[in-house]
Design brief:
One of its GO terms (cellular component) is cell septum. By secondary structure, this protein is an alpha+beta fold. The protein contains 7 helices and 8 strands, in the order ααβαββαβαβαββαβ.
């Protein structure tokens, strides 16, 4: 012990040097003197087993007001079955007080029969033509016939006297006359002796016919109109035998082509 007391510093230095050498050796060999030894398989911690079903921890109870889930509305797929045909509309009931029906103008009578209705006779052929146009617009079959020095407006012919009188009653505003044949039963005296006429034009347009009528009347000629189908024939007359040739020459001087007719 006397040596240790006298040489303690050397002993300490020796111990420290030995520890350093031991540490270097352990470091180089990879030995860790402070590591715990590995546990044996028998001492291994047993694996945890899941608790039995009866011991499953209770789930957290839902709240009283769960959150609202918004579900998008998808469009409905079109049906493959064709839609049913619409039901026919119900017939409208007839009103209790229907409005009075408007009676249409009578249709033109067929060009058969021998009964006629004379509506008027005019010394001015233009007036006769205007009346004929008015009656024709109402649906009547109208004829213009020369009767002496006047133009007669005639409706027909009609197949029976009853039909002709029914038409005449519908024209009470005029002085009508129902007759059979081509001449009224009580014609003017001038119609008993037929005279000659000179036809100077035939027109489809009533305005053109009236223009020629005005020209001839301004020259002092008696003018009548005759309608045949869609043509309005302008005639000068009636003329006596002694005036016929002179009138023809005068009309040719006006640039017209007179044609003698009865």
């Amino acid at each position: 012990m006397g040596w240790l007391r006298d040489n303690w510093l050397d002993a300490v230095i020796f111990v420290l040097f030995a520890l350093v050498v031991a540490g270097v050796v352990l470091f180089l060999t990879g030995v860790n003197p402070f590591a715990r030894p590995p546990a044996s398989p028998a001492q291994a911690t047993p694996a945890q087993t899941p608790p039995p079903a009866s011991q499953t921890p209770p789930q957290t109870p839902t709240t009283a007001n769960p959150p609202v889930q918004v579900i998008p509305v998808l469009p409905k797929a079109p049906s493959e079955t064709p839609p049913p045909a619409p039901a026919p509309a119900a017939t409208q009931p007839t009103p209790a007080n229907p409005s009075p029906a408007v009676t249409p103008a009578p249709r033109p009578a067929p060009a058969t029969g021998s009964w006629r209705v004379a509506v008027g006779a005019f010394s001015d052929a233009a007036n006769a033509n205007r009346l004929a146009d008015s009656l024709r617009a109402q649906g009547y079959a109208v004829q213009l016939e020369p009767a002496g020095s006047v133009t007669r407006v005639v409706l027909g012919p009609f197949p029976s006297e009853e039909r002709a009188r029914a038409v005449a009653q519908g024209l009470s505003q005029y002085e009508t006359r129902v007759y059979r044949g081509t001449v009224p039963t009580n014609p003017p005296s001038s119609m008993n002796n037929p005279s000659r006429y000179l036809q100077v034009g035939a027109f489809r347009n009533s305005v053109s016919a009236e223009a020629l009528v005005s020209q001839l009347k301004a020259a002092g000629y008696p003018v009548v109109l005759a309608r045949e189908g869609e043509l309005i024939r302008v005639r000068v007359g009636p003329l006596s035998e002694d005036r016929l040739e002179a009138t023809k020459s005068a009309l040719r001087g006006l640039g017209l082509s007179p044609l003698e007719v009865r």
